[in-house]
């Protein structure tokens, strides 16, 4: 009887969760677009993250024994997330979708540099190669919409969002390394900061953003979109991201999250019926391949196959 060989997981749980998050966030663009047809940007952000905060508020009890430095770090994470959502949302309003898709993908390129400076960890050669492949894939995917840069306000905001994304991943790693906190506790704080910040900005700068909520009856699309954004794109996604950052390197996290535009294009094609060219599909495939290149332990895979062949 042939001895049973030990099984090895191709992707660690943290990496697998991030891959699923990229799929979920890739679908979120069309969902958000549907919800914004009924409700303004800042009010929708306040509603989405306000519901999330209420559902997770019980997890704030873990902050009672946290130091002042830890509390300050978690608050900074919330402010970074608020800044990311604001720059991304208003940036898209002032630039072309193709430009936005390409510029936000620069997060994948910037994260290894930020990690090197902030965390003193130099990414490996395989990670740099994966970053280059992902960048080229993003160019092909975005150029499907004919990239053209005059570098207007929108382009600047999207570029700022890419920098903030890279910074946020590295700062989260630094905060969780200094004082480990449950991922749901960090997510609760972030949700509270984004909800309060969005509400305050709407109150001060955009009173017209506050409109009566659509009634449940006759607005199933809106409330279905809100529930999907709350439970899939916020509760699960931010919990999984915070969980994974504590167990992986920021560059690996960024590469996996960088596959989000590829899944967004797939969702837009299948669900929304949008056209994606052959170059776009090749670019999306390159982005996903780059994620797998940097995260799958290929040496273990080949070693397992060689061992299986030897045993046989």
Could you describe the 3D structure shown?
The structure is a single chain. The protein has helices spanning 13-36, 41-56, 68-93, 97-104, 106-119, 125-142, 153-178, 183-205, 220-245, 250-257, 260-270, 278-295, 298-311. It is mainly α. It has one domain. Helix 1 (13-36) crosses helix 10 (250-257), helix 2 (41-56) runs antiparallel to helix 8 (183-205) and helix 11 (260-270) crosses helix 12. The longest helix is centred in the N-terminal third of the chain and has 26 residues, at 68-93. This is Multidrug DMT transporter permease. It comes from Caballeronia ptereochthonis. Keywords: Cell membrane, Membrane, Transmembrane, Transmembrane helix.
Features:
mainly alpha, 74% helix, 312 residues, 13 helices, disordered N terminus
**Contiguous uncertain segments of 5+ residues:** 1-9, 300-306
Helix coverage percent: over 70%
Intertermini distance: 10 Å
> What is the 3D shape?
globular
Number of helices: 13
Count of domains: 1
Radius of gyration (Å)? 20 Å
Subcellular location: Cell membrane
Membrane topology: Multi-pass membrane protein
Protein name: Multidrug DMT transporter permease
InterPro entries: Diverse_Substrate_Transporter, EamA_dom, EmrE-like
């Amino acid at each position: 009887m042939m001895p049973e060989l030990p099984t090895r997981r191709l992707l660690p749980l943290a990496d697998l969760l991030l891959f699923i998050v990229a799929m979920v966030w890739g679908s979120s663009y069309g969902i958000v677009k549907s919800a914004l047809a009924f409700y303004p940007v800042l009010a929708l952000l306040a509603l989405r993250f306000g519901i999330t905060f209420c559902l997770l508020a019980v997890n704030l009890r873990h902050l009672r024994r946290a130091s002042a430095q830890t509390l300050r770090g978690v608050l900074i994470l919330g402010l970074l997330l608020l800044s990311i959502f604001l720059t991304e949302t208003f940036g898209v309003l002032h630039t072309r979708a193709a430009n936005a898709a390409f510029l936000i993908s620069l997060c994948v390129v910037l994260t290894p540099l930020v990690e090197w400076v902030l965390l003193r960890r130099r990414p490996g050669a395989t990670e740099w190669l994966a970053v280059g492949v992902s960048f080229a894939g993003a160019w092909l995917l975005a150029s499907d919409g004919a990239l053209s840069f005059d570098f207007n306000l929108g382009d600047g905001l999207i570029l700022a969002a890419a920098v903030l994304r890279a910074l946020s991943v590295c700062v989260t790693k630094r905060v969780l390394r200094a004082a480990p906190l449950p991922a749901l506790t960090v997510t609760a704080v972030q949700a509270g900061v984004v909800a309060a910040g969005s509400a305050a900005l709407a109150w001060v700068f955009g009173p017209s953003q506050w409109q009566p909520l659509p009634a449940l009856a006759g607005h199933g699309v809106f409330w279905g979109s809100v529930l999907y954004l709350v439970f899939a794109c916020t509760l699960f996604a931010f919990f999984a991201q915070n969980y994974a950052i504590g167990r992986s390197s920021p560059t690996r996290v960024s590469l996996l999250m960088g596959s989000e535009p590829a899944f967004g294009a797939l969702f837009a094609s299948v669900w929304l019926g949008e056209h994606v060219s052959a170059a776009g599909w090749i670019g999306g495939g390159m982005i996903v391949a780059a994620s797998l290149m940097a995260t799958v332990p290929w040496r273990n895979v080949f070693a397992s196959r060689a061992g299986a062949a030897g045993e046989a």
